[in-house]
Amino acid sequence: MLRSEVMDYYRRGGERDRLADGQGPLEYLRTWDVLTRVLPSAPAEVLDVGGATGVYAGPLAAAGYRVHVVDPVPEHVAEAASRPGVTAEVGDARELPAPDRSADAVMLLGPLYHLLDRAQRVSAWREAGRVVRPGGVVVAAMISRWASMFDGFVHAYYDDPTFQGLVEGVLVGGVHDNVDPEKSFFTSAYFHHPEEVAGEVSDAGLVVERVVAVEGPLWQAGPRLAEILADPERTELMLDMLRRVEEEPSLLGASSHFLAVARHP
Questions:
Q1: DSSP alpha helices (H): ranges in the chain?
Q2: Which listed residue, 5, 138, 244, 261, has the most CB atoms within 10 A of its CB?
Q3: At 13, is the secondary structure helix, strand, or coil?
Q4: Is residue 182, in this structure, part of any structural domain at all?
């Protein structure tokens, strides 16, 4: 299952408010926007792997989808299962507790962050491909290779002398090796180079349909971002503009996260 420091991070509530503060609302809005355009129509069967507390599963169930969350953190599973229309169980992305070809869509919006070895990430993709029906969609989220480098300036993390060492490790090999629970620099994770995605997906027997930037560079806008998100008209304008450039390859690395949309051939 999860490495001990990762499990501790989430059991301390690391996921509970992440999408509600700072650049989190932009990540949520953009991810939701992409999901509404790539998922099959309700009432499709959606397997939300690494779905945490059900922050996406709940709205999907409210929209008429049949959603089942699989997550390795028992506290997440209990909270997700309390949402109307959502079922949930403890499980691992590399060995899903689901029959072959039992879902119309699979979401991997968290697992790939914490699978530090390439073979494990391919295994998660392969399991998603086993579970999804032919022609079905798999949507996965990844953190950009350069997210921590930029985030250190946004949140003044470089004031801590240990942070630059974490960044250096990411730049060299993608591994954000934070095993210290006292540090607020996320937890142990893998940060993807955009050019890695196609190879991992292909090795799992799936086909990449598109890779899209989630936030683009706007996640670094600081207080100005909160002002935009507080204004419905400006928010809609921002989302429209981001849709127009979401597949622009040169913006993928500037985004904190990107999504890969793959299909079962």
A1: 4-11, 24-38, 57-62, 74-81, 118-131, 147-154, 163-173, 197-203, 223-229, 232-245, 249-252
A2: 138
A3: coil
A4: no
Strand partners, 141: 259
Q: What's the full length of the chain, in residues? A: 265
Q: Is residue 64 part of a domain?
A: yes
For tokens 């210290």, the residue is: 180
- Asked whether residue 234 is assigned to any structural domain, the reply reads yes
Which among 110, 95, 120, 103 is positioned nearest to 140, based on CA atoms? Answer: 110
pLDDT surpasses 80 at 46: yes
Given a cut of 80, whether residue 17 has pLDDT beyond it is no
Owner of token pair 């501790």: 8
For 232-258, write each residue's pLDDT tens digit. Answer: 999 999 999 999 999 999 999 999 999
Q: Rounded to an integer, what is the distance from CA 253 to the centroid of its chain? A: 15
Residue 250 lies in a domain: yes
Domains contained in the chain, number? 1
Amino acid at residue number 46: V
Task: Report which DSSP code applies to 41.
Answer: P
pLDDT grade, residue 28 (50/70/90)? Answer: very high
pLDDT at 181: 63
Can you give the CATH number for the domain in which 65 is found? 3.40.50.150
Q: List pLDDT tens digits, range 148-180.
A: 999 999 889 999 988 999 999 999 999 998 877
pTM over 0.90: yes
d(CA 186, CA 167): 12
The residue with tokens 């299909």 is 263
Query: Which residue range is the domain that position 241 belongs to?
Result: 4-143+191-263
Which residues 6+ apart lie within 8 Å of 231 measured at CB?
none
